[in-house]
Design a protein that fits this description.
With 164 residues, the chain is mainly beta. The protein is 14% helix and 57% strand. The protein contains 3 helices and 10 strands.
């Protein structure tokens, strides 16, 4: 009976794992459970997204830390130059406001890219753009269309594309 009680206590205490966040450590406040600190899995945009049009493929590997977003993006086009680079930006409601810093045809460029969360994937925003230096940015209304839909995919399917 004593061994069984000890096992039950050990198992239950494992479910009550706590951790301190940096702000809790500095403020001296009580520890919070790890489920209180982490985002709900359904809210995070972490993952890989892909869009295939004919023989062209676009891929996004996205990570989220709070409202901050970062990752990689690749356009692998058939019979024309593609691009590859990094993305970073912020989540603003259901819109991801990112900057794509990439190389294409030996030239480094930056372009503003917006995505709208929809049906577990992303819709790329399209709109009028202008240039300032090496950066393209939106100047007017942004439209989101199913024609620009990126579907969430298993990251094992796409990570090899970035090692070219």
């Amino acid at each position: 009976m004593t061994i069984l009680t000890g096992l039950l206590i050990a198992c239950n205490s494992g479910n009550q794992h706590t951790e301190l966040t940096e702000s809790n450590k500095s403020s001296g406040s009580a520890a919070t459970t790890s489920s209180d600190v982490k985002q709900k899995p359904g809210d995070a945009m972490d993952g890989c997204y892909m869009k295939i049009t004919g023989r062209d493929t676009a891929i996004i590997i996205l990570e989220q830390n709070g409202k901050d977003l970062f990752g990689k993006m690749l356009y692998d086009n058939f019979e024309k130059d593609g691009s590859s680079g990094t993305i970073k930006g912020k989540e603003d409601g259901d819109i991801l406001k990112l900057y794509y810093d990439f190389n294409s045809e030996g030239t480094r460029s930056v372009t503003e890219v917006y995505f709208k969360k929809a049906n577990g994937g992303l819709l790329r925003g399209i709109g009028d753009m202008d240039m300032k230096g090496d950066t393209a940015y939106f100047t007017s209304g942004i439209n989101y269309s199913d024609k620009e839909a990126f579907s969430k995919v298993d990251c094992d399917l796409v990570k090899g594309k970035f090692q070219k």
